[in-house]
Amino acid sequence: MGTIVARCPIATAKALTEAGRLLVSWSSAKAHILEQRPLRCYKCMLVGHTRPVCPSGTNRGGLCFRCGLDGHKARDCTGAVRCVVCADAGKPAAHLMGGRDCCPPKTKGRVVSGAQTTSRQGSRQALEEATAMFS
Question: Which residues have CB under 8 Å from 99's CB, separation 6+?
């Protein structure tokens, strides 16, 4: 049995969840609305910002999402489940990094050329730098 995620207008999503099922060809599937996930940075794995404007000096981007160690991917992991972010924050860490049970402290802020700023000019510059990085 598989899973499918469908993007659709809100009215359509409400109608599908009220019906409870979605018919696709000869198959029928349960329908439910997914919970909204918090904005998460995949560099430091904290919530409240994204990679281009990450205020953290910590780079956890190459760590395994399952055990938190470097050098392998989660699909190949045989280690115990451990969230490095929550462990570093002194919270329970027996869950996947970035999973539903993961609730690291929120961080807000932007780093522009090494200085933290919240001005429009700084935000615009951060956006330009992020655009240049991914162009």
Answer: 65, 83
Longest dimension (CA), the chain: 58
| Residue appearing with tokens 């109608």 | 15
Looking up tokens 């996930």 gives 37
The H or E element spanning position 28 is: strand 27-30
Q: Which pTM does this prediction carry?
A: 0.56
**C-alpha span between 21 and 38 (Å, rounded):** 27
How do residues 53-105 score in pLDDT, each as one tens digit? 998 888 998 899 899 999 898 899 999 999 998 898 888 899 988 887 888 77
